[in-house]
Specification:
single chain; 269 residues; 2-enoyl-CoA Hydratase, Chain A, domain 1; six-stranded mixed sheet; four-stranded mixed sheet; 13 helices; globular
């Protein structure tokens, strides 16, 4: 598949052990359309047999990591007309994208500038480390759109932030999480000056790249297996739940309010 929105550059840093993946749609919004998600899902396959790369950095544009799922994408809007089985199948693209990044053998780092919203946040919590610019902010808007937060992200956020902060971030969907809060909540590991997220991630990646590759991979695998051992138990139905909430009146109200730029009124049905 030809990649329109994602570029991969390998062979950087010490002994060429660092790669940078740039997701940039050229509009400073960087929404996750179906095409964009398929491209991002397939990137980890480039590294499956790559024993030379130790670290992969994922970054967006200079002003935006991602605005999340593209509600204006014609392909995405088709799901409202699909049968339930087809909706469930279509909904699996996001979770598979995130799982592919989590399962990479290489150490992964997100370099975040600007907004990181919804599916963008789901993607970055699938990586090993997150660095962001001081003006970056995060938001999890799914509940306010009348749906649940899915893509397997709840267990990952829980592992990073703990129960209370995860509930706060997801349930209070209108609240922006600024960079200082994100650091305090352990959603990110480091906050740097604007425009420095990628250079800082590169410096950190260089330190990892100088370590012996085999035990680095072994360490990541061991930590991830322990930290995420129960993820499937917690998240195996979140795609189904997303389809279910997508059939509610509240979902129609939430997405309509988003497009019409007004506050939604939910009725619990």
């Amino acid at each position: 598949m030809e990649r329109r929105f994602v570029k991969v550059e390998k062979g950087l840093g010490p002994q060429g052990r660092i790669a940078v993946v740039r997701f940039d749609r050229g509009d400073n919004i960087n929404a996750l359309s179906g095409q964009a998600m398929r491209e991002l899902r397939d990137v980890p396959r480039d590294f499956e047999d790559d024993l030379e790369t130790s670290v992969v950095i994922l970054t967006g544009s200079a002003k935006a990591f991602s605005a999340g799922f593209d509600l204006k994408d014609p392909e995405g809007r088709q799901r409202d007309t699909l049968a339930v089985g087809e909706r469930i199948q279509r909904q699996r693209l996001g979770p598979r994208m995130c799982k592919a990044w989590q399962d990479m053998d290489q150490v992964t780092i997100a370099a975040i500038e600007g907004h990181c919203i919804g599916g963008g946040a789901a993607l970055v919590v699938s990586l090993d480390f997150r660095f962001c610019g001081r003006s970056a902010h995060f938001r999890i808007p799914e509940v306010e759109l009348g749906m649940n937060m899915s893509w397997g992200s709840i267990p990952r956020m829980l592992a990073l932030m703990g129960p209370a902060r995860t509930k706060q971030a997801v349930i209070l969907a209108s609240d922006r999480i600024g960079s200082a809060e994100a650091l305090d909540w352990r959603l990110v590991e480091r906050v740097v000056e604007d425009g420095q997220a990628l250079p800082t991630a590169m410096e950190f990646a260089e330190r990892i790249a100088k370590q012996p590759p085999i035990p680095v991979r072994m360490t990541k695998a061991s930590v991830n297996r322990l930290a995420h051992a129960l993820d499937d138990l917690a998240a195996h139905m979140d795609s189904d739940q997303n389809v279910l909430t997508g059939l509610t009146e509240d979902y129609k109200e939430g997405t309509s309010a988003f497009r019409e730029k007004r506050r939604p009124t939910f009725k619990g049905r």
